[in-house]
C-alpha cells in the first residue's frame, strides 16, 4: 500500500532568493528599485547642492507677488496687479477651455471621417483617406502655425471695416471675421433671464429623458418613436415660449467698430480659434482611425444580419455597429483626449495664454524661478491627465461588453 | 515611464551641474571658442548674413571678447536665444556671456544671480504704429492691440504705462522679433512696442519703412549691456574691461586704422600706453596677453566705429548717438580709467 504524504514543507533559506523562480523575480525587481531610488536621490542631491553653490534656493513665494503683465484672454478677473498665482489660474482655465472645445470637435470630426472612410462611395472614401493621412503625418505645431498664419494673412484687419467704402463688411451687420478673431453679438442677461436659462437646461434633461424612454419602448415593445423632430421641439419650444412670457429679458450686444478695434460683443480671439481648430482636425484624424478600427472589428455578419432584418444602413450603423465598436474605440480615445490636453501646451506659438504661456512662460521668465515653475506645470498636467483618464475609464466601464 | 523620469531628472541635474563650474576663462581658453548668446535675429544688433556670418553691434562685443581672450575674433560660437531662453542658457553654462539687448534690472542682477558688466547701449521703450492710423502720441493708444515679446521688461513697462494712463489695450504675446514683425505687418496688432533701438532696426527691414512712425514717447529706461554669471569675478572682469577698452579707445582716439601704429611702440600718452600694453601689466592682471586690448579693438574697431558701422546714422537703421555719445560729447558713455 502506498500512502500519499504531503511533500515536506521546505523552510525558507536565503539562497532561494536567487535559485527559486518564485522569489527570483522579486529579488531582481527589488534590486532594480533600489538602484533607481539611488540614482534619483543622487540626482536630486546634486541639484540641491548645485543650486546652493549658485546661491539659489527653491521658493514658491513669488506666487503671491504681483505678476505685472497683462493677458489677452481671461476667464476670471485679472489685471496686471494680480498675483502670479492668479495668472497661473487664468492659464489653467484657458488650457481647460481649449482642451474641452478641441476634444468635442475632434470627436465629431473623427467619427464622421472614420465612418465615411468606410463609405462605398469611392470619392468620399479617398477624400477621407487623404484627410487622415495628411493630418496624421505632419506635426501638430506646423498645423497650428499654418492655420494661424492663414487666418492673420487672409482675413482683413479691423481697420479694413472702416470708412464709407470699406474693404470688408460685417456679415448681417453683426458678425465680423478679422485677423484678430471673430466678433459676435454677446447676449446681455437682463432680469428674469435666469428663468429662461433654467428652462433651457431642463429642456436638455428632457431630451435625454425622452430618448431614454423611446429606447426603452423600442426594446420592450418594438415600437419605434421618432426621435429627431421631438428632440428639437423639446429643446427649443419651452425656452422660446418662456423667453416671450418673461418679456424678452435677453438682448444682444452687437460688436461695433470703435477706436482701433471692435468694441462690444464677444471676441473669440484668433489664437484660440487657430489652436482649437488645429488641435481638432489633427487629433480628429487619429480618432478617425480609431473609429475605423472599431467598426472593422465588428464582424461583417452583424451588418448582414441587421440588413436581413430590413434595417436601413444608417440605422444599422447607429443601432448595431457603433454600440459594439465603442468598446474598441473608447480606450484609444482616452489617450487622444490626453494628447489634445498636452498638445495644447503649444499655444504660445500663436500667443494663446494657456498655462504653459503664463506660468511656464512669462512668470518663469520674469521671476527666473525655472525649477519651481516647471515642477508646478508637471504637477498640473499630471493631475489633469489622471482626471481625464479616470472620467473616461468610468465611461469605458459603462459601455464595455457586459459578460454574464 | 521609469526611463522618462530618469532622463528628465538627468536633464535637470545636467543643467544645474554647469552652473557650479567657475573659472570660465580657463574653460574658454581650453575650448578655443567663446560661446556667446545673442538674439535670434535683430538686424544691426545681431543677425546672420546670407553667408551665415553673424554681424551686428552686440556681435561686435562678442568678437572683441573672443579676440581679447583667444586672439581670434572669429573664434565665437553664436547661440541664438529668445527672451525666454536667454537666462537659462546663461545660468546653465551653455553660454559664457550674453550680449543680447538685455536690460540691466535690479532683480536680474541680484535675484537671478547675474552680473551686468556695463552698458553698451542706453535705450528706452518706444512704440511703432502704421502711419495710416494717424496716431501721433502714445496717449492716443487707448483700446489698441499691442504686439509684445514675452518675458521682457518691455512687457512689464507696457502694463504699467497703460495702467498709469488709465488706458486699455490687448496684448498679443510673441516669442521672437521676426514673428512680431510678421504679425504687425499683417495688421494683427496696431502697435509694436520694444526698445526704441529694436524698433528702428525692425523698421529698417521693412519694405516701406516710411509707412511706419515711431511715437515720440519713450516710456522707460532700458540700459542694455552684456552680462555673465555671478560668482566668477575673473571672467566678469575680462568681459567688463573689454567693453571698457572699446569705449576708452574711442575717447582716446584709438581706432582700428591707427591702432597698429600706436601699439608698435610706447607713445606720449601713458593711458593709451597702458591700454595698448606698451606700458604696465594690465593684461597680465586679467590673465590675458599684454596686447589683449589691441586685439579687441582691432576686431571691429572702437565703440564709435562699431556703432557707426552697425546702427549709426549712415546705416538703414539710422540711430543717432544721443545718450550713447561719449561723456566728452554730452552723452553717458564713460569708461573708468585704465590705471
Structure characterization notes:
- The complex is a heterodimer of chains A (404) and B (339).
- In chain A, 64% of the residues lie in helices and 6% in strands.
- Chain A has helices at 16-19, 21-53, 84-116, 122-136, 140-154, 193-221, 228-245, 270-297, 300-308, 313-343, 355-367, 370-399, and strands at 176-178, 181-184, 186-189, 250-253, 256-258, 261-263, 266-269.
- A 3-stranded antiparallel β-sheet of chain A has the order 1-2-7.
- In chain A, a hairpin with a 2-residue loop joins strand 5 and strand 6.
- The two termini of chain A are 47 Å apart.
- In chain B, helix 3 packs across helix 9, helix 3 runs antiparallel to helix 13 and helix 9 packs across helix 13.
- Chain B has helices at residues 2-20, 24-31, 57-70, 86-91, 106-110, 153-164, 177-185, 196-204, 233-252, 259-264, 270-276, 282-286, 292-300, 303-310, and strands at 34-39, 47-48, 54-55, 76-81, 97-98, 114-116, 121-123, 125-130, 144-149, 169-174, 191-195, 212-214, 222-224, 227-229.
- In chain B, the strands form 5 sheets. In chain B, strands 10-9-11-8-12 form a 5-stranded mixed β-sheet, with helices on both faces. Chain B has a 3-stranded parallel β-sheet with strand order 4-1-5.
- In chain B, strand 2 (47-48) and strand 3 form a beta hairpin.
- Chain B is α/β, with parallel strands linked by helices and 339 residues long.
- At the A-B interface, helix 2 and helix 11 of A face helix 1, helix 4, helix 6 and strand 10 of B.
Uncertain runs of chain B with pLDDT below 50, 5 residues or more?
1-10, 12-21
Helicity of chain B, as a percent range: 40-55%
Q: Give the total of beta strands of chain B.
A: 14
Described by strand count, sense and barrel closure, the largest sheet of chain B is: 5 strands, mixed
Distance between the termini of chain A: 47 Å
Total helical segments of chain B: 14
Helix content of chain A: 55-70%
Largest interface, with Cβ-Cβ < 8 Å?
A: A-B, 51 and 54 residues
- H/E series of chain B, N to C? HHEEEHEHEHEEEEHEHEHEEEHHHHHH
